[in-house]
Structure formats: structure tokens, C-alpha cells
């Protein structure tokens, strides 16, 4: 927090009822940013549309913003959602003062570098001057101490940074709570998967292009691209089909499936086909002339069109699509060596990348899904041939969407049995696998593997 405030407040048409003068270019920019960010924040909260979609549409419609403008607006907006569990507790006599206090607190917690802007916000925030030492620590406990110091609040808790319904539906042991909160309030790296070339080759190409790419210690085809924004369309490795953006936890699913080169697989809920492409890549890694094939299905046509584009860019053959058109299977029953059901879910495991979703959803995001998930899993299981694999996955951290669905499925049939899986990041064996975000700096993910007897 800056402790130096100008004697004269400034603001220019911040809203219909408040007018404050701006006397410097930095102050004018700060007010413009504040107005835009407030508009976007309120739009996300009122429409409950994803923040990345809202801000993407805004930038497409307002091309006047340069790269710095976009960075300030984007990073502040997502930072507000990341720390909203604390920021919403701030209060001031005037609503606009509350908003500027939230902006300055967010900037301090995020360690934003644009000091001219944050100092301008700080002036309007009119904090009571206190000795608040700056912190460059990433420790969540240090950030809590910082926030309580300049806010004057004394009852803030680490658990406030996630909604109360999360703790009820995604049980976390007391020993792990700190690590979960710390992970959920930090930004994971951009994880990618290399296909058709060696990871070392891809890393060298990316480094030459200015991308901070490093190898993963867990999978030979997984690499981290760091935390900086990347324009993929300017990266030759991507344009040539040798790189797919896929979180490390998501890559676990394909590794658990481990398809053989000559097998026939069905990706029953493929979306835009990230895991479809991973399955095909794993087949081709075993044999360049792999005869295996994958059929991808989804109820939406646009993602399947995107899959076809991605498969074409990668030069992958033996991938086809079969949209779900009704409750009937879009593929033949008793046919596949493996069926992957990456079911629709609450997506609580992706909150690191989408911090707005924790405040847009409520407990129904979890409770509404298990019936649908069990129905999809039950239908899709009919496509597995004798001895074949059935893999169920979600990006949820809630047992009701994960273990409980698998247990309900196994309780209604004696044709399938669980196959133990090895946790790729700890090496331990487990009957069903939940990847927590803090374990390998990734998203959260669940996967269970079954075999048809």
C-alpha cells in the first residue's frame, strides 16, 4: 500500500453520481481502467458467464487497448476473483471508495508492477495510514498478514478464499487445507503436450522462439511453457501440429488409459478432442504405423469441428467423429478395447485457471451432476467389449461426482471391476485416483479405471 495520498482527490465521471478530478495522465488511465474493470466484474457476476469469455468479447469490441492496457485489465479482473473471498469483506462509507480499496488490495496481493496505476487507485481508496511493509512473498500466510494489516480486518481466514460449499462438497483434511488454498490462489503454468516429435526438439524450438519451455519430470511428452501469455498462432511448433495445450492433470487420463497401438477406442464425451488427440499420439508413440483408431463423440457439433481441425493440423489419421443424437449409442455396442468417459462436472479442479467460477457457482454445481454422470457412464459402458477397459474421469474434486458415481455404477452391474492405478506423481497404488492441484502444480482431476470381465 502506498502511504502517500494527494491532498486533492481525483475522479472523472467514475459513475453517474461521483465525479472526481484527474490531474495527471496516470490518474486518467487509472480511472479508465477502474471503470472498465468494474463494468467487466459486474457483468461476470450478473450474467454468470465465464470471465474469460466476457473479457475476450470486450477486447474484440474495443481494439483501442494496447498490450499494457489488456494486461492491466485482464490481470486485475482475474486477481479480484482470486482474492474475492477476502476483498468482499472490505467496506467503506462510500461504494466507490470500497471499490478502489478492493483494487489496491488486489494489486498488493498479486504484486502487480504498475505502480503509477495502483498509487492512483490508492489515493481514492483513502486508507488510514499505517506502516505496512511491502511483501514479495508467495506464502499465503504472509499474504493474509499483509491483507489484515492494511485492511484492519481481524477475522479473515484462509478458508474464506474458497466458498463454504467447496469445503462441504470437496472434503480436505486439516493438514492439506493450507496447501489447497495456496494452490488455488496461485496461477499454474501453461502445460502442453508434444506429439510426433521428441520433447527435447520441441523445447529447443520453443526456447528459440522466446518461450520458457521445460520438460516435465513425470511424462516424456509433457512440457511446461511457464506462466507468460503466449500467442500460439505465432509459434511454428504449434502451427505444425507438434504442440497441444493440455494441463498436466488432464494428461494423466491418457496415461491411465495407455492405449495399445492396434486398439479401437471411443472417447464418449470428447469436447474439442484434447484427450482424443492424446490417445492417438500415445498409439503412434508405440508404433508409427499404428492401426489403432479412435471415435470421438459429443452432443455439440462445434467442438467436434474443432477436433477435426486439430487432428488435421497434427496429421493424425484414424480419428473420426460420431455425434450423440439421442439417448441411443452413437457407436456399436460391445466393440471397443477402451472407452473413455470424461464426464460433464462442476469443474472445481480447474478453479486455479478460472477463479471466477468459484463465486459464480453454488453447491448445486456439484449436486446436480451425479445422476447425469452415472447415466452417461452406464450407457457408454455398453460399448466396451469383453476384457476391454472403461475409464471414468472428471475435473472435479468432489467425491459425489467421482468415487460415488463409480461405486454406484459398480453396484448396479457385475460385469465390471476396478483396476488399480499408480499415482503418476507420488508412485503410490490406489483403486481410484484424485489429482490435487498442489501435488504437481496442475489442475485437479479424477480418474478411475475398470475392466469388463
TrEMBL record:
Keyword Transferase among record annotations: yes
Active site: 395 (nucleophile)
Pfam families, A to Z: Methyltr_RsmB-F (PF01189)
InterPro entries tied to this protein: MeTrfase_RsmB-F_NOP2_cat, MeTrfase_RsmB-F_NOP2_dom, RCMT, SAM-dependent_MTases_sf
Entry keywords, A to Z: Methyltransferase, RNA-binding, S-adenosyl-L-methionine, Transferase
PANTHER family: NOL1_NOP2_SUN FAMILY PROTEIN _ ANTITERMINATION NUSB DOMAIN-CONTAINING PROTEIN, NOP2 YEAST -RELATED NOL1/NOP2/FMU SUN DOMAIN-CONTAINING
Protein name, UniProt field: tRNA/rRNA cytosine-C5-methylase RsmB
Amino acid at each position: 500500500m502506498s502511504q502517500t495520498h494527494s491532498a486533492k482527490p481525483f475522479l472523472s465521471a467514475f459513475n453517474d453520481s461521483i465525479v472526481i478530478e484527474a490531474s495527471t495522465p496516470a490518474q486518467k488511465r487509472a480511472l479508465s481502467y477502474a471503470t472498465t474493470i468494474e463494468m467487466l466484474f459486474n457483468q461476470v457476476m450478473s450474467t454468470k458467464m465465464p470471465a474469460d469469455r466476457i473479457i475476450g468479447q470486450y477486447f474484440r469490441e474495443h481494439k483501442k487497448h494496447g498490450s499494457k492496457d489488456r494486461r492491466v485489465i485482464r490481470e486485475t479482473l482475474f486477481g479480484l476473483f482470486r482474492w474475492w473471498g477476502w476483498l468482499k469483506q472490505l467496506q467503506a462509507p462510500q461504494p466507490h471508495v470500497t471499490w478502489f480499496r478492493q483494487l489496491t488490495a488486489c494489486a498488493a496481493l498479486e504484486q502487480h508492477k504498475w505502480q503509477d496505476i495502483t498509487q492512483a487507485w490508492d489515493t481514492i481508496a483513502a486508507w488510514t495510514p499505517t506502516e505496512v511493509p511491502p511483501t514479495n512473498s508467495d506464502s499465503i500466510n504472509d499474504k493474509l498478514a499483509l491483507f489484515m494489516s492494511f485492511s484492519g480486518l481481524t477475522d479473515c481466514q484462509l478458508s474464506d478464499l474458497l466458498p463454504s460449499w467447496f469445503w462441504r462438497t470437496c472434503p480436505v483434511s486439516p493438514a492439506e487445507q493450507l496447501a489447497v488454498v495456496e494452490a488455488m490462489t496461485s496461477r499454474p503454468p501453461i502445460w502442453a503436450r508434444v506429439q510426433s516429435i521428441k520433447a527435447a526438439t520441441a523445447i529447443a524450438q520453443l526456447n528459440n522462439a522466446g518461450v520458457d519451455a521445460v520438460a516435465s519430470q513425470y511424462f516424456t511428452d509433457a512440457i511446461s511453457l511457464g506462466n507468460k501469455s503466449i500467442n500460439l498462432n505465432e509459434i511454428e511448433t504449434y502451427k505444425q501440429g507438434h504442440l497441444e495445450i493440455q494441463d498436466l492433470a488432464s494428461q494423466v487420463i491418457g496415461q491411465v488409459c495407455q492405449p495399445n497401438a492396434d486398439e479401437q477406442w471411443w472417447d464418449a464425451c470428447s469436447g474439442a478432442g484434447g484427450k482424443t488427440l492424446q490417445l492417438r499420439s500415445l498409439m503412434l508413440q508405440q508404433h508409427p504405423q499404428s492401426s489403432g483408431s479412435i471415435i470421438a463423440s459429443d452432443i455439440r457439433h462445434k467442438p467436434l469441428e474443432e477436433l477435426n481441425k486439430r487432428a488435421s493440423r497434427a496429421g493424425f489419421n484414424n480419428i473420426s467423429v460420431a455425434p450423440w443424437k439421442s439417448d441411443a449409442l452413437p457407436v456399436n455396442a460391445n466393440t471397443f478395447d477402451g472407452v473413455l468417459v470424461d464426464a460433464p462436472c462442476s469443474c472445481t479442479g480447474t478453479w486455479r485457471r478460472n477463479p471466477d467460477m468459484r463465486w459464480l457457482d453454488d453447491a448445486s454445481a456439484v449436486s446436480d451432476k451425479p445422476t447425469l454422470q452415472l447415466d452417461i457412464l452406464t450407457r457408454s459402458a455398453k460399448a466396451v467389449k469383453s476384457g476391454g477397459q472403461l475409464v471414468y474421469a472428471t475435473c472435479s474434486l468432489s467425491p459425489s461426482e467421482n468415487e460415488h458415481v463409480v461405486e454406484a455404477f459398480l453396484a448396479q452391474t457385475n460385469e465390471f471391476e476396478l483396476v488399480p492405478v499408480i499415482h503418476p506423481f507420488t508412485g503410490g497404488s490406489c483403486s481410484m485416483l484424485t489429482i490435487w492441484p498442489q501435488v504437481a502444480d496442475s489442475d485437479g482431476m479424477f480418474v478411475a479405471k475398470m475392466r469388463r470381465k
